[in-house]
Design brief:
285 residues; alpha/beta; Rossmann fold; 7 helices; 7 strands; 13% strand
């Protein structure tokens, strides 16, 4: 008869695993007023962290962000106006964050430029896309993340502790399937900007670069790549997209929380230089 071995040190029912606890830590989230910014912020706050949200001076106020301030209080969530391409504004935000909350040891590089399907923006044929439009996406999505990582990573290296999480995309790994978008009634046909995937692929490689250089100083750097987050997309798009997903649905905002907390917390203390995809298996075939 084989004896069943019971695991020792298991979690008690109803208790939060301590390894995911962020109490006493301070996090920075760029693009705080955008669509996913409040999702990352709420996850961090709920795990016990204090959070500094960064966004552009002229970025419109976010109802979702204001609700989080009301729920968690200004002593746990602050907003600082800064441009990811302006070092002086980032250094000012870092100083304010350290004074108001504490020295940050978690950074979520969330700010970026995207063009969701059906967006009311000018469309182009592939050979007509202006190079300055291409360059703008690369600048914000890659150079911006690099500059923010320099400014906040410097202090993490000095302290010997930190976790940087770069928000990637499933399009860092695969090219957009144009057939998913071909029902959108625009002329020329809608194209997912080629610079978007190129920028996210570059961001994943930058993740590996920073991880190898800062690992000896106790700073971990990883990429978190969501795929197809459910929003106000049209029904045809949703149906076409879901047909490509092994799990048979688009991601919902709660699906993003666990992976983020894993990378931000001690649960991933031996994980660096990796890309964690939250895509329901989209890139598996």
């Amino acid at each position: 008869m084989t004896e069943r071995i019971r695991p020792s040190g298991g979690l008690s029912r109803g208790r939060e695993p301590k390894m995911f606890d962020l109490t006493g830590r301070t996090a920075v989230v760029t693009g705080a007023l955008g669509h996913l910014g409040p999702v990352w912020i709420k996850a961090l706050l709920s795990a016990g962290a204090r959070v500094a949200g960064l966004d552009l001076q002229d970025a419109p106020n976010s109802t979702a962000f204001e609700l989080l301030v009301a729920e968690f209080g200004e002593d746990h969530l602050c907003l600082y106006r800064a441009d990811v391409l302006n070092r002086a504004s980032l250094e000012k935000a870092r100083s304010s964050c350290s004074d108001d909350l504490d020295v940050p040891t978690i950074l979520v590089n969330n700010a970026g430029i995207d063009q969701p399907p059906g967006a009311a923006t000018e469309s182009h044929q592939l050979h007509e896309i202006p190079v300055d439009m291409f360059s703008e996406v690369l600048n914000v999505n890659v150079a911006g993340a690099f500059l923010v990582s320099q400014v906040f990573g410097e202090e993490m290296v000095r302290c010997g502790n930190g976790s940087i999480i770069n928000i990637g995309s499933l399009y860092a790994s695969v090219s957009p399937d144009a057939r998913i978008y071909n029902h959108i009634d625009v002329d020329p046909p809608f194209l997912k900007p080629p610079a978007y995937g190129a920028s996210k692929a570059g961001l994943v490689n930058l993740t590996k670069y920073l991880a190898t250089h800062w690992g000896p100083y106790g700073v971990r750097v990883n990429a978190l790549s969501p795929g197809g987050v459910l929003g106000d997309q049209d029904e045809q798009f949703k149906d076409k997209f879901v047909a490509r997903v092994p799990l048979g649905r688009m991601a919902k905002e709660p699906d993003l929380i666990g992976p983020l907390l894993f990378l931000a917390s001690d649960a991933s203390s031996y994980v660096t230089g990796t890309e964690l995809r939250i895509d329901g298996g989209f890139t598996a075939w």
